[in-house]
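Dear Dr. H.,

I hope your travels went smoothly. While you were away I took the liberty of generating a structure for the chain from your last submission, since the lab meeting agenda had it listed for discussion. I wanted you to have the full record in hand beforehand rather than looking at slides cold. The sequence, exactly as received, is reproduced here:
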Amino acid sequence: MPHLTADFRGLIMICPSCGQNNRLAYNKLANRARCGQCKAELPLPARVVEIDAAEVFVALIRCSAVPVFVDFWAPWCGPCRMVAPEIEKLAELSAGEAIIAKVNTEVLPEIASQFRIQSIPTFVVFDRGGEAARTSGAMPASRLREFISESTR
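The corresponding predicted structure, in token form, is as follows:
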């Protein structure tokens, strides 16, 4: 599965055919994309995106053409570590339907504060630039996928 990172303009995916980096603009995430170099069709984003800067987080939730599920977590949190494999599964299950992102509250405390994250893990769904729903506590990927679906109807 291709590696996935983000900057303030979009997701950056490595083409599995030729290895070229490709930027998928946030406002075009609902569309299929092709590699800029070899023209191969790129797979739908099916990996968790680690958000490492506030401006990247803001651009993602404000501009994404698909819902964004955010896992607010911290490395010292036992339940966060327990649910991490389920978040990875969720990314695979949600390819093309939603972007699955993680925000480390220790790295980006200003984002956690802005969204009043008081316990972790907390999961927030953003849709059309705003918060659609939130829940807390570890749960299986299938339930988290239902949560996204219920939040964006």
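Two observations you may find useful: The first helix runs from residue 54 to 63. Residues 14 and 77 are 31 Å apart (CA to CA).

With kind regards,
E. W.
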